[in-house]
Design a protein that fits this description.
Layout: H1 9-31, H2 39-73, E1 81-82, H3 84-87, E2 97-98, H4 100-118, H5 131-144, H6 149-173, H7 176-188, H8 191-203, H9 224-244, E3 245-247, H10 251-274, H11 278-294, H12 299-315, H13 317-324, H14 334-349, H15 362-370, H16 382-415, E4 421-425, E5 428-432, H17 434-437, H18 439-451, H19 461-484
Length: about 475
């Protein structure tokens, strides 16, 4: 099998040609005044050209940079711009808004398209090479029959971007060293959100919702729940890596390094608590439980630290109230609101049971049922979301890609042999338990299922892109291992 990560002259030519075409397109738009009056649009176009230029030298590193910055870009809606004027001579769209996160998703799709065309001979040797394209086609069928196409366009983009990220993870990061690099970047991507979270704590800049006086931190994310989901991913990666990756050092220095590794974990765990996202709390607790099941020596520290964390949580009134809210039942509790939305969604879904109302139409459909413009319209359940938006086809779409991801996560984890391997990584010698590192995609996708009963992780787009990229990289590393052995 050819080296999937090898830089080729053909690939580089594609990025240079794409840059050349985009420069001509941009100059045409500036000369005729379609974008000259919009400095944000000009800045965005220049950044995109810089991305294409850097991609000529190393598309995989540009992709890793996107992974690092995506948790910041998801909340950069202040830089949303209308590119309709930029495109008005080419397509009949007056208003078409784009933000840094959606631009990043377009770049991911662009990269995946180029790589899959370049590696088309190897495409069907990649795990999920049938499942994900079939899922994408199903989602497009559902999307195209929707009457809310412009509203659903961004959700369709984000859904398919996760699948594209999987293929890029496999093609760009499909080696053991690259898998380690990707996991490192995922953990390091928390730096910018953590700085924002510290600032929010110091300035008292909390997120308050209409039905609650609870102040919650959100980092760089638009909502505290999505910040919590992201921290669940980062902490799961960091916790598994903490027990899987050991640097070759001795004596007191080794103990100091372990302590220094634990400090950022403790800080991120504190932020996770302060998001007050109960599903993220439960998700991370399930991750720790799974680690304890496969690593017996971790069970005693797990019980001790878990008990300590539970005691600290119960000391504070806000966290006590948040936990108690799970078991309350009145018209203002969160589960009552969820059930009300689910009832309306199921009522509406019965009127269009085959195709649903279209990808990304949940909000508009529920508002039509409610007959009002305000109120909570978030799905809080992936099964109901896909049933309303896609009918029976939507349920097939959801089960197709989720079961495919879980099947390959389980299969690769079971088949990977036990034992530690010596790896030279970032200038240091490490002893790595890759089988345990293979738990990460398994945890991210299997825990997604119970979370899906009370939340909609399919709409936590950073969570999706990270989980799919990690799965692709892990399966690529497994295929390279099998090839060598």
């Amino acid at each position: 099998m050819a080296d999937l990560n090898q830089k080729t002259e053909q690939r580089s030519k594609v990025y240079i040609c794409a840059l050349f075409v985009f420069v001509l397109f941009f100059l045409y738009s500036v000369i005729f005044g379609y974008s000259a009056q919009n400095p944000r649009l000009v800045a965005g176009a220049l950044i995109f050209m810089a991305v294409l230029l850097f991609s000529y030298f190393s598309a995989s590193n540009v992709f890793l940079a996107l992974v690092f910055f995506i948790p910041y870009l998801i909340g950069a809606d202040a830089y949303q711009i209308n590119i309709g004027s930029f495109l008005q001579n080419f397509i009949s769209v007056k208003d078409l808004y784009i933000n840094p996160f959606s631009l990043s998703c377009l770049v991911i799709l662009f990269f995946a398209g180029i790589e899959l065309i370049k590696k088309r001979g190897l495409l069907f040797k990649i795990p999920l090479s049938f499942v994900l394209p079939a899922s994408a086609i199903l989602s497009l069928v559902i999307f195209l029959q929707s009457k809310y196409k412009m509203d659903g366009l961004v959700f369709e983009l984000y859904l398919i971007s996760g699948f594209a990220a999987y293929f890029l993870g496999y093609l760009f990061m499909g080696k053991k060293e690259k898998y380690l690099e990707l996991l490192s970047i995922v953990v390091l991507s928390s730096i910018i959100p953590a700085v924002f979270a510290i600032s929010q704590l110091l300035m008292g800049d909390y997120l308050y919702e209409g039905d609650s006086g609870l102040g919650r931190i959100r980092g760089t994310f638009p909502h505290s729940n999505t910040f919590g989901s992201y921290l669940f991913v980062v902490l799961t990666v960091a916790a598994v890596a903490f027990f899987s990756v050991k640097k070759k050092s001795a004596g007191n220095r080794k103990n100091i390094e372990k302590f220094l590794k634990f400090i950022p974990l403790a800080i991120l765990f504190l932020f996770l608590i302060l998001t007050y996202s109960r599903t993220a709390w439960i998700g991370f607790a399930l991750s720790l439980l799974a680690i304890g099941l496969v690593r017996p020596y971790f069970r005693i520290p797990l019980v001790y630290l878990g008990s300590l964390a539970a005691a600290l949580v119960l000391v504070f009134e806000k966290t006590r109230e948040r936990i108690a809210g799970i078991f309350e039942s009145h018209m203002f509790d969160s589960m009552y609101g969820r059930r009300e939305i689910w009832d309306m969604a199921l009522f509406a879904a019965k009127k269009s049971p085959i195709f649903g109302y279209g990808i990304g139409t949940f909000e508009n459909t529920i508002r039509n049922v409610q007959g009002k413009e305000s109120g909570n319209v978030y799905p809080h359940n992936d099964f109901i979301r896909f049933f309303l938006e896609g009918g029976i086809l939507g349920i097939v779409l959801y089960f197709l890609y989720m079961l495919g991801a879980i099947y390959y996560s389980v299969k690769s984890y079971i088949r990977y042999p036990k034992g530690k391997e010596e790896i030279y990584f970032w200038g240091k010698n490490f002893s790595i338990d890759f089988k345990m590192l293979g738990m990460i995609p398994l945890l991210l996708f299997t825990i997604m299922i119970p979370i899906s009963l009370v939340e909609a992780p399919s709409m936590d787009f950073v969570y999706q892109i990270f989980a799919w990229t990690i799965l692709g990289s892990w399966l690529g590393a497994c295929s390279q291992f099998k090839l060598k052995n």
